Amino acid sequence: MTLEIDALHKRYGRTVALDGVSFDVRPGEIFGFVGSNGAGKTTTMRIALGVLAADAGEVRLAGRPVDLQVRRTIGYMPEERGLYPKMKVGEQLAYLAELHGLDRTTAQDAAAHWATRLGIAERLGSTVDALSLGNQQRVQLAAALVHDPAVLVLDEPFSGLDPVAVDVMSEVLREKARTGVPVLFSSHQLDLVQRLCDRVGIIAAGRMRTVGTVGEVRRSGGIRLEVHAPAAPPGWADGVAGVRVEHATGGRTTLVLDEHADDQAVLAAALATGPVHGFTVHTPSLSDLYREVVS
């Protein structure tokens, strides 16, 4: 099933929080939702869960508007701690599973399974407030998974985790996606988003600025070529279509190519000036593009 975010609008007084936000998360896909603080990520997610009402637009799961019954099939992990601090981990996970409709035995089995999978089985008898922040984050994810959700919506799930815990959580998300579950998560860790996600959406000031595969989004920032042609005169690349000179000094030129430019035409133009000692292609990272989009 596909999670559809369709033309969401939301205002708080004069502040526009969301301005026509649209994207979808497809079955078996991990979608990274990226933006600065206050860009609209959490507002979008809360509307998707029915915690907030949109001023306009709609959220659908498998073509059906999200109501109470549909919400019960969604696994949600909020950015802020949403657990009972004085309740034991195992009891809490089983309780949350029962709230989603599981019988007691199944709920207890699911709690034990996800605690083991996320490396906190030995803490099932501990209260949440006795755990480290990283382990609390693992319990939060277990709470989102314990009822076997049809879709996952996770707000900053990797916040505060050590590298080992990041690897464990990443693999869990991949496992869920491989079963056909759409996974939507927000994160400021753009290297992780680039590594983990099938597609990514960048939001700024309440508007979606770009949506696509990680490769498509990176290429949309323009491919850069670094050319070392010692004998090349100034302006040697001016006649090549789709090419802009970003920087040139001492026979070294950095060029920005649009999607229609031909790097072989650039190489031919450089060779026409004499020897070429270097010809390196650079695709901007997601972090580089993010800085351009939100600046």
TrEMBL record:
One of its GO terms (molecular function) is ATP hydrolysis activity. The lineage of its organism: Bacteria, Bacillati, Actinomycetota, Actinomycetes, Pseudonocardiales. SMART domains: AAA. Belongs to the ABC transporter superfamily. Residues 3-230 form the ABC transporter domain. It holds the Pfam family DrrA1-3_C. The keyword Signal does not apply. It comes from Pseudonocardia autotrophica. Keywords: ATP-binding, Nucleotide-binding, Transport. This is ABC-type transporter ATP-binding protein EcsA. It comes from the Bacteria.
